[in-house]
């Protein structure tokens, strides 16, 4: 396929929108000890968020894998690694050194009573007291970017092998994806996670001790790459099966609510805190069926170009970089007002979306070199907006 997949841009925007809504709720969920945690929590909100919690990250990594296919080219090339490193490493280091700092500062003030200024905290405590959570230095939500960078390096030779003409594994993937066996691909992240869990029992987002879940995210990333690579021969099947995919997602969600999310812990098949093999199988199947559902419907109904789409897609990465700092700041000022959870959550969500979008727009107006710090093209806004669409070839 030679034209840009506009629906992938829309899926990317949708995935990050879900992320903003979810992160805004984290403080109010009873089973999550987030950066700033509200004394008032909501079981109802937790039940609502249990559903996107199962697939939101899988979708993000899957869409990122599809995006990687755009830049990989027709064959393995070191330019892929250069582009990915430049696009991901600079924003990661900048965010860890600057953007993330207020998050920890607000947390230390709210949870520990710290009274120093942001400048004082940044210059005297952030870099010198060790790693978070005992210390202060952290990559916070930027773990996602760090994982993408490491995945790109690890997957580079694998992708290079898979795209070689006549590759048997790629041919098998193409054949299988045209049949109902496509729904069994969730077994890949499940098998890898279960095999590695004895060595890496907890999800940490710290990379060095998170092998079981890194393998899960890398699986979604790789499936996204392959799906985009063989898009022209697979998309009709995915679109044609979109109602089947939706039905599987619906049934799986119902079973999870019935046997995991809405029952007492001692009667549940598992939970996000107690990741039993059966529970993992359920959420991975839900994640995969939701991905296929969203791809199928988006490719069928939302594959048209749009100037607004191009602008929104350009702003997604800087918006992601700044959003959690905005959320934590909003929580710091809203929670002391002691309002009902529904009101506090609504205010925090609105503040997160509006201020993050505003900051992303401001970033887009920065001069060339400064834009690179937020993952944007260094050529300037007008040139970046007029760049031709990347091509995706089989």
Automatic annotation (TrEMBL):
Keywords: Membrane, Transmembrane, Transmembrane helix. It comes from the Bacteria. InterPro entries: Acyl_transf_3_dom (IPR002656), Glucan_succinyl_AcylTrfase (IPR050623). Residues 6-360 form the Acyltransferase domain. The chain crosses the membrane at residues 12-37, 57-81, 88-106, 140-159, 180-200, 212-231, 243-261, 281-303, 315-335, 341-366. This is Acyltransferase 3 domain-containing protein.
